[in-house]
Structures are given as C-alpha cells and as structure tokens.
Specification:
The structure is a homodimer of 251-residue chains. The first copy, chain A, is an alpha+beta fold and 251 residues long. Chain A is built from eight helices and 13 strands. In chain A, the strands form three sheets. In chain A, strands 1-2-9-4-7 form a five-stranded antiparallel β-sheet. A four-stranded antiparallel β-sheet of chain A has the order 3-8-5-6. Chain A has a four-stranded antiparallel β-sheet with strand order 10-11-13-12. The longest helix of chain A has 27 residues, at 131-157. The two termini of chain A are 32 Å apart. The first copy, chain A, binds a DNA duplex (30 and 30 nucleotides) through helix 7.
Chain lengths: 251, 251
DNA sequence: CGCTTACTTGAGTCTGGTCAAACGGGGTGG
DNA sequence: CCACCCCGTTTGACCAGACTCAAGTAAGCG
C-alpha cells in the first residue's frame, strides 16, 4: 500500500515564503499576507512515492507546493495510469476536492515535497473577504485548464516523437521559471515509465523515442537528468511556443 | 474564412432565463439576479460553423451558452485539430481569455447557438462585490478541469472502442441533464470527423469503430442521432461512472 | 554479493493510419 | 425534372507506428 504523507509543525512564516523571491510570482499586499498567514495551518513533508491526495477521498486540506516535484494522475480499474500534470512550487493542489464532493484524481510526490497546508473549510472566507485572492485562485484554475488543453492536444494529435519533445520542453520551461535549471540542464525525478504514462505511450516505445532524440543530438537523458542539447531543433520538432509564466499568483 | 457570429439585441430577461427551469442548475438570490441582469449586455446568435472565440484573440466578451451545441478546440500549424470539449447550455465560455492576455483555444458553434454576452472588463466587479458568483465561476472552472482530466485519461489510456463508448456516454449524459434527450436518443450535431478529432483517432477508424459498436447492438448512430441501445453494456465497456451534474451553478 | 529497480534491445504482432474509391442523400441551377 | 455536386459516410487494401513479450544489462542498496 502507498505510504501517506505526514503533517508537521509549521516552519516557514509566510513573510519569508521561499517562493517570494522568484520573480515569476506576483507579490501581495500586507493585508493579504496577514490573512494567508492565518489561513495557513501548517506544513506537510511528503517523501517520494507518498500519496498527498487520493482519488475518491474528501480531503480536509488544500495545499500550495513550496518545493519538490509531484504529479496528478488518474487510474483505470485495470491499472492503466494517466498522468495529468506535474506539481511544482507555487502550484495550488486540491481545489477540485474542496469545491466538489470528492477528489477525482490523486496526487503523489516524486521527490521530497514541502507543502503549505490550508483548511478547506476556510476557502469560503477567501471569497467573502479577500476578492483579490479569490481572483488569484480562479486564475490558477484557468491556468491549469490551459495546461490540460495543451496536454490533450499533445496526446491526441502529435506523433510519439513530437509528444516527447513537447513534454520535455514543457517540463524544462516550468522548472526554469522556478530556478531549478542549470544552463540547459534540469533534474527531473521522472522515470521513463512516468513519461510514458504522461504521453499515453508504452514504456518500450518511450525509451526508443528518447534514445532516437538523443542520437539525433537534440537531448540527453541520463540518471533523470535532462539536457536540451539543441533547444531550437527540439522546439521546431514539437511545435513549441514559449510559456509566459510571469506574474503568476500563488496563495 | 470562417464566418463570425453576430451580436443582437437582448431578448430574454435574466428573470426568465431558459436555464432556470432545468433542475441541474442552482437558483440564485434576488440581489445576484439583479447584478447578473446588469452584467449581461446582450445576446449573441451564432449560426452553425461560426467562430465565437478565436485562438490568439483578446476578446472583450464572456459568454454563457443558453441553447445549442458548440465546441472548444485547438489547432496545430499543419491543421490537425484537437476538440477539447463540447459547449452546452449553462457552460461559461471565454474565462481563460478574460484572465490571460489572449485565448489559447477557439470556440465554434455546431448548431445554432444562443449566448448571453458579458463584458470582460466587469469580471472584476463580480469578485469584488458578489463573492457567491465568484465562487460559482471558480466552481465552473474546476468542473471544466475535471472534464479535461477525464478526457485526457480517455485519449491517453483507452483503446479506440473504449474511447468511442466513453465519449458517447459523456455526450449523452450531459445532454440528458439539460433535457435534450428523448428516451435513449439524442441528436448530436457532430460529424464522425468531430468524434475522430475529439478522440485522437482517424476518420476511417472512427467510422469502423462506430459500426462495430452498432453491429454488436450497443448503439445506433444515424443522421447525427445517437441511440444508446444497450447502455449497460456500453457503460461496462467504457468503464463509465455516472456524472453528478446537480446543483451546477451558472452565471 | 544478491536483490531490486530502471533501462535497453530484439523479434514478432496488431491496432489504428493512409490512400483510394465508391455510395447516398440533399440542394441547386440549367 | 434531371444532372451534377458536395458533404458525410462506407469499404477495401495496404502500411506503419506503436505495443507486447521476452531477455538481458546496468546501477544502487542492504
């Protein structure tokens, strides 16, 4: 059975939130900061492989990822798994579960994650008293929808090679905006099985496709480290257009 | 070139909104009704095939569909098209475009559609003064995200037969909740090409798959009319679980 | 050192794609 | 009224991208 993540005492005060220094995130005012500070009830450390939110459950919490990598996914009865998106620092997790009766997807940690914990009960206070923050939450939901649109286009219409290229550029760009890259290199705690389950490909075919891209001098993928050897060519192959992640809100 | 839909003078007052009678939609209070009534600036009639919102544009409007069928989609440079979702009465359209700098997908009418027109400029007023409505908008965004999650799971993990079965059940259920079905029958203004572009299949294979399902006595599909001959068997094939669309908000 | 997990590679198969042609109904203009 | 055309659907033949099965390698860890 999957291990479950564990809540721990709060450490970072919101005023010193590690996300605050990244320029992709918008800053917020004193009043909002004070509220979020009270809204936050603790921190969660999730070890790799632990389930943060489970499909079918009705979690009492909402989270904002502070560090580490995770992913959202859905399962079919027979075990087929579709990875829906990665969860990166600044991502708000569990909104669906807070608005609907239960979670329709699960969230699992890929690397050790640190998350901010909020009470779902108090979500309504945000809408009532902090319209700016409510707006931000809606913005984040719309943004996630955009990513899903892109992802669906990718899986539905592109060839295996294009799909892999697109996904790698997507992951790299999101990591880059959070300062997780060094030059053309990122460490992505994905196995090839994760890539396969994200793209709707088999593990074997994913492996062959990655190796083909590597042999053609577009990428290098070793020990979960991705290097974009020829970003231009890769972008052309994938039909990639840069993301604009500036001024992203977070809660 | 695609024809563009045309705005026309307002006809239905919000108090007599045709959606109001459908029990899947939640009712709202006097004060909200008044506001929405002022928020609404007119109505749009879109003929089949017209573009309501175009990718890359920065529309000044937001819409709520009142009647008819439409669909959201994205295109690749070479013309490959991915249909992201259908637009049905009660669906809120254009939120992404209102929050972000531009639309990342297009919306086209399948049948003649009637839409409520709102000014995007005034979206902020909702968040500032009508937190209940703001909450509803967020709910709708989260709901759309859920549909996309399901759709991605479908396209990424299921076989052609399962995909088709799932899509037909999805379309039927959503239509059913809006009173658009008669018994086990719905008229869906989709061509087989639309189904193919929704599921990431070729037209030919979609046709063969539909016929195979028909010959097996699960469905009937003629002149854009779908009949669920054996809904139970179809659901089993698709791994379908019923939607709960009750108490859905709308603006 | 043995076990486990992830990655690789080969061989054979099949689901689903492509190309091409034909069918059928509805609309239109001569 | 008929011929033609257009659009959507259908069918056949062939092809290939991606899958499955299977076995082997490499790296990390207790």
């Amino acid at each position: 059975m999957a291990r479950i993540a564990r809540v721990q005492a709060r450490r970072y005060p919101c005023e010193k939130c590690p996300l605050r220094t990244l320029e992709i995130f918008r800053r917020f005012g004193r009043r909002e900061l004070e509220f979020v500070s009270r809204f936050k009830t603790g921190e969660l450390v999730a070890e790799p492989g632990t389930t943060i939110l489970a499909e079918g459950s009705h979690s009492a919490h909402l989270y904002t990822a502070l560090s580490g990598w995770g992913f959202r996914y859905k399962l079919l009865e027979d075990g087929r798994r579709q990875i829906l998106n990665v969860v990166l620092p600044g991502d708000f997790v569990g909104l669906q579960g807070a608005l609907m009766s239960q979670m329709q997807h699960s969230v699992e940690a890929l690397s050790t994650m640190l998350l901010c914990v909020f009470e779902r009960e108090r979500l309504w206070e945000i809408f009532r008293d902090y319209s700016h923050l409510a707006f931000d939450i809606t913005w984040l939901a719309a943004r996630e929808e955009q990513f899903l649109d892109e992802h669906l286009l990718n899986v539905g219409q592109r060839t295996a090679e294009e799909r892999v290229a697109f996904l790698l550029l997507f992951l790299f760009s999101r990591a880059e905006a959070r300062g997780l890259t060094r030059g053309a290199t990122v460490e992505i705690p994905f196995t090839q099985q994760h890539i396969a389950d994200t793209l709707g490909l088999s593990l074997v075919h994913t492996n062959r496709t990655l190796n083909r891209l590597a042999r053609r001098g577009l990428i290098a993928w070793n020990q979960r480290t991705l290097r974009l050897v020829d970003r231009k060519a890769l972008s052309a192959l994938a039909g990639w257009h840069d993301l604009t992640e500036e001024n992203r809100p977070y809660i």
